Amino acid sequence: MDIQSLISSLVPGRSFADLGGLWGTTNERISVALQAGAAAATMIDHQPLGNELWQEFDAHCARLGVSGYVSIQGDLDDPDLPHRLGQFEVLHCSGVIYHCPDPFHSLRQLRRLTGRHLLLGAMTVPEQVRNAAGAVDFSEGRMLALPALRGGALAVMQRHFDELHIKIPNINAPEREPWVLPDGMPNYSPWWWLFTVETLSAMAEAVGLRVVGSFESWAGYAHYIHCEVPE
Q1: β-strands 134-137, 88-94: how paired?
Q2: Under 8 Å CB-to-CB from 7, ≥6 apart: which residues?
Q3: What domain of life is recorded for the organism (predicted)?
Q4: Could you say which of 72, 96, 107, 194 has the lowest number of CB atoms within 10 Å?
Q5: CB 125 within 8 A of CB 230
Q6: pLDDT tens digit sequence for 87-126
Q7: Any idea which fold 3-124+195-228 has?
Q8: Where do the domains of the chain lie?
Q9: Confidence (pTM)
């Protein structure tokens, strides 16, 4: 299973939204949904409408001959967002949840926005990370909060991501990201959490979603979790 095929199987005649899919253009799913027969499609992102990223997205869709979608500026963690937007029968959200300081709140928000299917994509780690720097155990619900990452665990995860050739601020990249912005609000740019697909699945179920399947993406460095809203 891959995410394009799953979206294409779920969206015909249904409303679809891609939340947080604006960064770049290669991972947006609006075009996939509309080409597969979605009744409506909405891109939701916190970026200000009309900025360079929105312009790139619009140009990308135009090249594909895709039109008729709705563009909305919105913050997943805004408590008013579900009241403002309502629900989407199929909601796609990838590359977002591990950037959220309070993932349970963010998952509850996704639950409120989902009418039937939530396709949740996230970077994940194995249950056991072992290398020359030592070992970190992520089994049985263990997670790492990156603001607290230091010492031996930091060395292990630095080596882990170095070996994957992935550079992450506050772990193994030369630049660092502040956890709090100058206005006192949390910074959503850095990764805040490391978790396994099993832990993320259990978290989704804890907020009232039913996990019906999961599969690897990005050569196994990430996973998608397919959740449904119980009837």
Answers
A1: unpaired
A2: 16, 29, 32, 33, 36, 90, 92, 119
A3: Bacteria
A4: 72
A5: no
A6: 999 999 999 999 999 999 999 999 999 999 999 999 999 9
A7: Rossmann fold (3.40.50)
A8: 3-124+195-228, 128-187
A9: 0.96
